[in-house]
Amino acid sequence: MAEFGKDMRTVKTAEERKNEILDVAEELFAEKGYDNASTNDIIARIGIARGTLYHHFGSKEEILDAIVDRMTREGISQARSIVNDKSLPSLKRLTGVLGSLQVKGSAGNEVMEQMHKPQNALLHQKMQERLINGVVPLIAQLIKEGNESGIFDTKYPNEAAEMIMLYGNIAFDDNENLTPRQKKRKGNAFIYNIEKMLGAKAGSLEKALMRFF
Predict the structure, then answer these.
(1) Which of 66, 71, 193, 208 is the most buried (most CB within 10 A)?
(2) What are phi and psi of 163, to 5 degrees?
(3) According to DSSP H, which parts of the chain are helical?
(4) Which is higher by pLDDT, 158 or 172?
């Protein structure tokens, strides 16, 4: 006689199941590409009923929306953790925040590729707005700290933070179409202008930030 509970399925909370679906969807989007991965693929890999998936997400598009939302929240959370780490100097935390916003991994790259398609323009705009609203206050806080410690000298920390985020989002949003030389030149220009805007010492941000370009 089988032991009690031996063949019972693991019961997961709604949040656990949603995250499992998103995790597997990210894997499949990275492996097959968003267009070639189906909800049937997700269902088969997890081993759940079709109704379970559609209880949480009405379509593959809704799954993509949820992945983008999760990526954005995680990026803002990571940026906030860096800002709150007072063991690091302001300059290092600023470069850390800017670096934390870079998309990483094949799954992230596939999601960003989808963001640039015309049918996802609204979702793309929503992602950018969330990032800007969440990260600008954090960057402004670091600029103010830099003003106090003497590494920055700007009268407009809030506006400078907004300009850094807006320009960074627009200038590097679709960086894949640039040649390596163009990326490097644009990166150098971005860093040069940030240093000028913040009143930072020339070259103080270059070494830390150029590795992202």
Answers:
(1) 71
(2) -65, -40
(3) 14-32, 39-46, 50-56, 60-83, 90-100, 105-115, 121-149, 157-171, 180-198, 206-209
(4) 158
